[in-house]
């Protein structure tokens, strides 16, 4: 079979002939792969930078973690790979599959799930989003941030404030449900003054953070209290595009009713992951199929994987490889 294979961390994947995977356990299925999204986690795992990554085998490893597949009877499903997914064939877990609506195309269906994990899991399970909440999304101009804006509104957020670097992308978010945009390119004092002003007028209930780094330090500092009663804020770290390490004052933690959590692989319970497959993804697939959830994707071919692996897809699009 043809596949995208990584032989060493840091190299580009190669489009080569590779042995077809075989079922190793009773909970696995062999499937035909149709479409696979290339995500930050895939690139991080391939480079060895992601915390879940392991070293490629000497004879190579197929990259790609999940995708849209066909079962033997032709049923179209989303699945999580046991073997790598950027290949004509793959093995997946029986318990982690979702049927794809007939009206939803392969590319859109492949683009969506990782963003649902990176948005809905944090909003639902870590932040416990409730109707009427005020939500700040730090770093919302990427693909997952755009999905997070829409899901936050779907879950009943009264107001969604978004930050980001690209002004045009920020303005685009207004059409997806964002109520206010804040550029992270302005000077620190202007950025902090705007966050403080918003927080004083409509106390921020939830922060969903895809950037971390210096912007997180500033936002957390803006939430700091002065000894009086404070609004309860649930701060959820999902990404670290602006840096993995921050400085956080102990006084910052003691002076405000703050819940600080992370949302990612290893932080979710088995029951939460179960709900992702039985409830969340089916719901989001239906929203996308009916046009209520806007998903942007750029389609490429598997044979061009080496040239496209590092492609910088703009305007909040997800890169999706069709097989």
TrEMBL record:
Superkingdom, according to UniProt?
Bacteria
- According to the entry, every stretch annotated as the Enoyl reductase (ER) domain falls at 10-321
Example GO molecular function:
oxidoreductase activity
Coiled-coil segments, which residues?
none
Q: Which PANTHER family match?
A: SHORT-CHAIN DEHYDROGENASE/REDUCTASE (PTHR43677), ZINC-CONTAINING ALCOHOL DEHYDROGENASE (PTHR43677:SF11)
Tell me the protein's name.
NADPH:quinone reductase
């Amino acid at each position: 079979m043809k596949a995208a294979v990584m032989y060493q961390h840091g190299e580009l994947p190669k489009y080569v002939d590779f042995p077809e995977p075989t079922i190793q356990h009773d909970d696995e299925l062999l499937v035909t792969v149709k479409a696979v999204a290339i995500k930050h986690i895939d690139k991080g795992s391939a480079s060895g930078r992601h915390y879940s990554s392991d070293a490629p085998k000497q004879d190579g490893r197929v990259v790609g973690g999940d995708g849209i597949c066909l079962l033997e009877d032709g049923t179209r499903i989303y699945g999580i790979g046991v073997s790598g997914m950027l290949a004509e064939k793959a093995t997946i877990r029986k318990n982690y599959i979702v049927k794809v609506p007939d009206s939803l195309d392969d590319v859109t269906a492949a683009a969506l799930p990782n963003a649902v994990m990176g948005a809905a899991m944090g909003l639902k399970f870590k932040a416990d989003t409730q109707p009427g909440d005020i939500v700040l999304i730090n770093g919302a101009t990427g693909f997952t941030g755009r999905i997070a804006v829409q899901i936050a509104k779907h879950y009943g957020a009264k107001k969604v404030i978004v930050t980001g670097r690209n002004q045009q992308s920020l303005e685009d978010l207004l059409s997806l449900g964002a109520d206010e945009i804040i550029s992270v390119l302005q000077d620190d004092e202007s950025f902090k003054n705007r966050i403080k002003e918003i927080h004083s007028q409509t106390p921020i209930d939830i922060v969903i953070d895809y950037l971390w780094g210096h912007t997180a330090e500033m936002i957390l500092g803006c939430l700091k209290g002065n000894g009086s009663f404070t609004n309860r804020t649930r701060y959820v770290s999902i990404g670290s595009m602006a840096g993995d390490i921050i400085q956080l004052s102990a006084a910052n933690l003691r002076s405000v009713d703050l819940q600080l959590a992370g949302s990612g692989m290893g932080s979710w319970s088995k029951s939460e992951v179960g709900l992702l497959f039985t409830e969340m993804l089916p719901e989001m697939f239906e929203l996308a199929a009916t046009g209520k959830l806007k998903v942007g994707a750029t389609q490429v071919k598997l044979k061009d994987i080496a040239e496209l692996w590092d492609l910088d897809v703009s305007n909040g699009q997800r890169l999706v490889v069709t097989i």
